[in-house]
Write a sequence for this structure.
């Protein structure tokens, strides 16, 4: 129950983290899910949010992306207090969020999905170019309904949004859900590539092993709080001893 | 050949107007997931406003049209979305349908308030009916050319909008996942608002164009129904495809005119068939639509109903009968008929409790099933003549069975499909009954017997006589109707508590899960629909007996729709909701409007005020229906919840009961009037939870609430009592002081960390969960 200072690659001490949560609380009706979350995503780093089901990972993601209002605490974005921001505003500020499940519109074609992604100011042509260059399979299916593609292809499409819109922060929620292990590692290769380009990434993942190799910092969430922040390897040890029982 | 060409042109014009109306419907359905039953009413309002501008105020035609299409239409759609439709996310399909139905009823009431229905109004064609061109002997009016061009323009425009523009793509995306649209930097409310503005404009355009084509008479109900005919065209495209919708509209328009042109002259019923055609087409389309996939995940909706035990229901049934007998003593003989009518409607409404409340399906024409039952009972069960004529039990049973069988026939084609389609099928059936069955006033040969289904357009339904019970006596009829409702009510609750009822509830919550558990959904739906229409049939026969003489006017769609709406307002999952809806739809309107009429005769000075009150009562009812969007479980859910909190202070209830008895005695002794009594009782029981909390706070308030009451007044916080952490945080936030800087200083951060784990209020919070 201690809020440890970051030990992972900490950038210059006076630089604001790209994303910071301070004592954030959030509730679904009478049920409080986040009970004071403190979390920092330093510029250019990959922070993995780990923990069991019901720990509050997805709710944290929703708060950051603006879909969920907070009841207390603050959300800071690059030195700016953005508490209470709407999802529309957040996305225009450069928060790109790929939600849990499939972040695609099932009844739109691949191309139309990319068209919707231009809401943050990118051009359709650029988006298409970036997406098709990275995932040639999507180019073949540009006229196909997204809902009729395989799970992996849908996740590629969802991830394409992050490729073309040049976000400041990328939020990834359970990228691995329902995907074959090979696809999952392919996805995380791409995420690693994005991180190398300098995008700050907050990724929530139940299966710690797939994300720890690319993470700079890991945070463990239990019962609506971040209970440990540290190097990925340390947190993984903690995770397997306290949660998985050794 | 000229005849053929003439009728082809006429058919295409009619089809063009249907197409415009239907495309607006498809547009709003695809962008909001709401099937807008009020689309016809919007068109009607558009036609009336245009008439007011152009014909009454003399605004030039082109300016009027521009005002209607550029200001009124978009504004109406935008306001509808902003204040009503936007609040319909996460509600059951039933709620969505009922809210649009309430808007329909509200618009009809509003138009009849603004434009006196007694006065005849004619809408003229653009450029007048005399401006035409003749092509190869076929006369085409300018107005008709405008209709065709407008339809073609809209067809191309919508196609381009949906496939070639980003806004069109966004509109389609809004239904899929509004949150994901937000994450992409768009505002789904703005997109949906635009779609509604466009849809409303199309409705207004259809209203302006269709009125002269359909004869020119401006009549609120007829105009509303006319555009409802476009539903059939929209179903051709499965509510999705705009091109197919246009094909459907053209087929509909052409069939309709060819029928008039080429049907043999001995088919005297062709006019009726033509009126019923869209509804018949709708039904046929439902038959051939492919089956929907069962949806896996249960949809989380905001509707909540609690199921009472059979014992509790039985107690309330006795209370209800006793209350009816007691109330009878207060009212004069002339009002008894209204009360009986109200109870008959309550029985019809009970059919909705079973069907909608328990099984989640919807019937938009319960009164039409009552009409079928009445007709069968009339033909099979009347014995004796003149004043001595009585309905016998055989007639009653035959009528109820006929309603059940008809229900099965209507439901069969739609059972494979989603709830919306079943609702449309029943609406089509209602239209069919109104324009075909109830107009069968002439004697014909049916199955070897010569008789008229609805002789002279007026059925004299004699009262029921079973053994010693003779409904000719109003009191007997009233008490029997109350008893029948009470027994059926208990029966319905028992049904819900049985294994069958649990199967229904399972089907309502998740059809896919119920199917996987081995339930036969079609059989389940069919049986519950039959039970429901049987009850509706029984109520219908009671209603007809209460009215003694019924015409087709007594079975119009507006009546069915207001009954459905009021029952949902009361709480469609409750027997009491059915009682509320039935009493108000059957007796309440007549009573209130009648009372205001009497008052304005008694006090002619205030006649205008009473007129406004009486009209606004009708509009207000629709507003209450629209309020279902905020409170989809119905009023009784709130009322029951409030009353239940009183369980810890029974003395409050006993006092209220004593006051009620006292008021009753006062009313009985004619110290206070019946209205005063009624209003006081309703206010007393409604206010009881609040009164109870005020009078017995120690019993009725939870620890938290007591603590909140005892808390220091806001201005003394920090003076008399320590400053709470939460308030401090909030104050810092409002002042713009960053919270993290408070935590950065190590001393404080330790304090706060310790504080977090031992927060006293946190423990309390968990208890309340």
């Amino acid at each position: 129950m201690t809020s440890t200072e970051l030990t992972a690659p900490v950038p210059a001490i006076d630089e604001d983290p790209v994303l910071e949560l301070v004592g954030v609380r959030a509730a679904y009706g009478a049920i409080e899910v986040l009970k004071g979350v403190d979390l920092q995503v330093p510029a250019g780093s990959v922070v993995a949010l780990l923990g069991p089901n019901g720990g509050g990972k997805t709710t944290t993601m929703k708060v950051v992306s603006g879909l969920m209002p907070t009841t207390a605490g603050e959300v800071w974005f690059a030195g700016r207090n953005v508490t209470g921001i709407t999802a529309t505003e957040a996305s225009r500020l450069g928060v790109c969020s790929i939600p849990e499940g499939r972040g695609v519109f099932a009844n739109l074609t691949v191309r139309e999905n990319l068209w919707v992604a231009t809401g943050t100011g990118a051009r359709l042509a650029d988006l298409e170019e970036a997406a098709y260059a990275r995932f040639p399979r999507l180019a073949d299916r540009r006229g196909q309904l997204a809902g009729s593609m395989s799970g992996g292809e849908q996740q590629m499409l969802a991830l394409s949004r992050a490729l073309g819109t040049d976000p400041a922060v990328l939020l990834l929620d359970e990228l691995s859900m329902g995907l074959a292990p090979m696809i999952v590692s392919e996805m995380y290769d791409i995420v690693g590539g994005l991180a190398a380009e300098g995008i700050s990434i907050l990724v929530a993942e139940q299966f710690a092993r797939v994300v720890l190799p690319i993470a700079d910092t890991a945070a463990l969430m239990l019962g609506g709080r971040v209970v440990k922040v540290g190097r990925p390897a340390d947190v993984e040890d903690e995770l397997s001893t306290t949660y998985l029982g050794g | 050949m000229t005849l053929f060409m003439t009728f082809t042109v006429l058919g295409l014009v009619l089809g063009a107007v249907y197409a415009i109306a239907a495309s607006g419907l498809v547009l709003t359905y695809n962008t909001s997931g709401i099937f807008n039953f009020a689309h016809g009413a919007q068109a009607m309002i558009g036609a009336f406003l245009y008439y007011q501008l152009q014909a009454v105020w003399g605004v030039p035609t082109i300016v009027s049209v521009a005002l209607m299409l550029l200001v009124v239409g978009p504004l109406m759609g935008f306001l509808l979305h902003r204040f009503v439709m936007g609040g319909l996310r996460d509600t059951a399909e039933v709620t969505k349908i009922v809210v649009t139905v309430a808007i329909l009823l509200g618009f009809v009431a509003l138009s009849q308030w603004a434009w006196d229905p007694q006065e005849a109004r004619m809408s003229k064609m653009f450029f007048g009916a005399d401006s035409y061109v003749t092509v190869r002997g076929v006369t085409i009016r300018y107005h008709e050319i405008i209709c065709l061009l407008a339809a073609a323009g809209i067809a191309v425009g919508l196609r381009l909008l949906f496939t070639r523009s980003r806004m069109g793509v966004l509109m389609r995306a809004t239904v899929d996942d509004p949150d994901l649209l937000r994450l992409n930097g768009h505002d789904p409310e703005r997109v949906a608002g635009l779609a509604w503005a466009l849809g409303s404009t199309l409705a207004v355009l259809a209203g302006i164009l269709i009125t002269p084509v359909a004869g020119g008479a401006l009549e609120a109900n007829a105009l509303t129904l006319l555009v409802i005919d476009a539903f059939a065209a929209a179903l051709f495209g499965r509510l999705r495809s705009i091109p197919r919708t246009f094909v459907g509209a053209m087929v509909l328009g052409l069939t309709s005119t060819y029928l008039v042109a080429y049907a043999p002259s001995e088919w005297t019923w062709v006019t009726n068939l033509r009126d019923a055609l869209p509804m018949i087409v709708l039904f046929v389309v439902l038959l051939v639509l492919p089956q929907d996939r069962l949806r896996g995940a249960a949809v989380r909706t905001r509707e909540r109903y609690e199921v009472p035990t059979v014992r509790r229901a039985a107690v309330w049934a006795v209370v209800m009968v006793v209350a009816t007998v007691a109330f009878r003593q207060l009212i004069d003989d002339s009002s008894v008929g209204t009360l009986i009518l109200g109870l008959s409607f309550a029985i019809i409404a009970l059919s909705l409790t079973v069907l909608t409340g328990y099984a989640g399906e919807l019937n938009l024409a319960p009164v039409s099933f009552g009409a079928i039952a009445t007709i069968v009972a009339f033909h099979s069960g009347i014995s004796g003549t003149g004043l001595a004529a009585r309905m016998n039990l055989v007639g009653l049973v035959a009528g109820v069975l006929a309603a059940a069988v008809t229900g099965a026939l209507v439901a069969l084609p739609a059972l494979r499909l989603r709830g919306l389609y079943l609702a449309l099928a029943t609406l089509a059936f209602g239209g069919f009954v109104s324009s075909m069955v109830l107009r069968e006033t002439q004697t014909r040969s049916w199955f070897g017997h010569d008789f008229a289904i609805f002789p002279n357009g007026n059925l004299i339904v004699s009262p029921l006589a079973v053994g010693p019970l003779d409904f000719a006596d109003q009191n007997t009829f009233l008490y029997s109707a109350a008893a029948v409702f009470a027994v059926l009510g208990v029966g319905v609750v028992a049904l819900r508590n049985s294994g069958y009822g649990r199967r229904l509830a399972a089907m309502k919550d998740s059809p896919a899960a119920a199917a996987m558990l081995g339930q036969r959904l079609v059989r389940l739906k069919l049986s519950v629909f039959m039970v429901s229409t049987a009850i509706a049939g029984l109520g219908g026969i009671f209603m007809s007996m209460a009215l003694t003489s019924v015409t087709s006017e007594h079975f119009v769609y507006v009546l069915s729709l207001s009954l459905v709406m009021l029952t949902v307002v009361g709480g469609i999952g409750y027997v009491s909701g059915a009682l509320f809806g039935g009493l108000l739809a059957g007796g309440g309107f007549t009573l209130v409007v009648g009372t205001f009429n009497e008052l304005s005769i008694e006090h002619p000075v205030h006649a205008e005020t009473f007129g406004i009150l009486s009209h606004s009562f009708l509009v207000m009812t629709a507003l209450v229906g629209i309020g279902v969007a905020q409170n989809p479980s119905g009023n009784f859910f709130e009322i029951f919840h409030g009353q239940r909190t009183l369980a810890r202070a029974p003395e409050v209830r006993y006092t209220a009961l004593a006051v009620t008895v006292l008021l009753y005695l006062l009313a009985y002794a004619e110290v206070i009037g019946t209205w005063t009594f009624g209003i006081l009782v309703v206010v007393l029981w409604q206010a009881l939870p609040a009164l109870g909390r005020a009078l017995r706070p120690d019993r009725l308030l939870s620890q938290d609430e007591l603590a909140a009451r005892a808390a220091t007044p806001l201005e003394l916080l920090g003076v008399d009592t320590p400053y709470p952490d939460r308030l401090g945080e909030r104050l810092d936030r409002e002042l713009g002081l960053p919270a993290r800087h408070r935590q950065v200083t190590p001393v404080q951060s330790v304090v706060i960390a310790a504080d977090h784990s031992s927060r006293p209020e946190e423990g309390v919070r968990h208890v309340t969960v």
Notes: Chain A is about 35% helix and 25% strand. The CA atoms of residues 192 and 214 of chain A lie 6 Å apart. The mean pLDDT of chain A is 84.
